[in-house]
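Sample intake — DUF1887 family protein
Collected from: Neisseria cinerea ATCC 14685
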Amino acid sequence: MDILKKFDVQVCMVSAQPLPNLMPILSCPPKTVFLLVTDRMKDKAGVLAHIIKRRTQTEVIQIPVGNGEFEDVETGLLDILEKVVGKSMITNVTGGTKLMAFAAMNFSDNSFYVTTDNQVYLFGRDFGNGQKAVLPADTKISIEDFLYVHGVDVISPMPVRNIRQQWLPFAEQVAKSPMLAAATRTLNAVIAQAAGKNKQALSAHLDYAPDRDLKQLLNIAEDCELVSVTGAELVFPSVEARDYLHGIWFEEYVFGVVKSLEGVQDCAMSVQIDLLSKEHGRRHELDVVFLADNTLFVIECKTRNYLSEKISSDERNTTIYKLDTLGDLGGLKTRKGFASLYELASSMRERAKGSKIQVWEKNDIQGLKKHLQNWIKQARNEI
């Protein structure tokens, strides 16, 4: 946003939603940022300052303003004015309380406000009756920084950002064929049985002759060097190949589709997180995560047969519950989705709908790219 380049200083009011303060700074880093910080926002200010310093060369100075009373804010602003004599300054009035914004506008010749759809309204001496701009949609911010600034820490092992291209043909062919997808149920069961006996098992045994679809599935897997089939014996070249066939392929397929979408700022899979503000149940793994329009999208990926009589109702709802309990981990605009290779139980669909979790199941997977494009568009229109 070039219009901010002429200002040496930005003044921001820290609030629970950090992006309206952070994104203009990342888009056009000033020399100095002053953060007006109430007592309630000290922790938020510390996180925001950390990200700004990590991503830019900007100097960050925190100005405490007590409970945000008008007099305290005025005192803080006077302190800033003494420090910026001879420098050009603009105030971001998006955060804080209305009282803080009113006080700040009285002390600053120029100010701006960022809307939830990234529109920027500029006011003051340099903008006449007001100007309108747009934050660049491609402003680079990593998933790690985005989550951290919302109180979520990404922990080791680090997120994966590359898929195994040599195995991708298997994933693509299976995802686009309902018959092959159905055949993975048998393969999953065989691998699960072998891995249950030995976590490092590199072989599995078919108890009966494979049908046509399973034969085709195994042929594709052999072509990709994921397995070697001799009669009823399956031999895997590595635990990684075995686990890929056991379901990791679906997660990588979904991630590959996400990577192909236009407007994605960053994406990753197998993201291990620690909810910094929680005391219990803090650690989770997010299958596929991406950013678009400064909005976080989280997708859980499953190749489990949820219609099986062996699965209890509690087990069916575990995944939906997990997504639901994550809350707004990336801010109020966070969107959550559930991609299932197989058909879901009706109770799962109802639970997902009540929790505003988007679902793609069975035949939806063939058109996943279009579904994800519509999901992003819908999120944009709901802002």
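Post-analysis note: Residues 306 and 312 are 9 Å apart (CA to CA).
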